[in-house]
Specification:
By secondary structure, the protein is α+β, with helices and mostly antiparallel strands. The chain is built from 4 helices and 5 strands; from the N terminus they run βααββααββ. Strand 4 and strand 5 form a beta hairpin.
Amino acid sequence: MIATSPIQNWTLQPIVSPTILAIVAVILLLLLFLGPGFVALTWRRRLSLTLLRLGVILLALIATLRPGCVQQIERSQSAVLIFLIDTSRSMELPHRSDNSTRFGAIKQILDDNRALIDQLQENRIAIRFFGFDSRVTELTYENGVD
């Protein structure tokens, strides 16, 4: 199985227009300079409070942008096309007025479509033939079904 390098696409889908988002961001950043008016804070507590507020503002702004990443990895898959062919005695009955058997008609159809079968195999699609009557047996296909 061959895997190609992943393709990553980053997207942004803001919940509002970028202009409104920029205005809200500026207002929120200006509010960083406000501190609580009911108690005096040391410079360390004021810095901690400002950093916490800044973190919350940044996370909220990132959330409103709704970022996304789509990663696409292409892999070739293995495929098997199975042909089930009746090999019971009924396949020995005449198919048409030309006295060909039903099994002979299937062989002729496969021979007529040999180019298509070869094209499938070139596209890495494995083709297997099975015959069934009272049990299932694998058939070979080289110059027609045997």
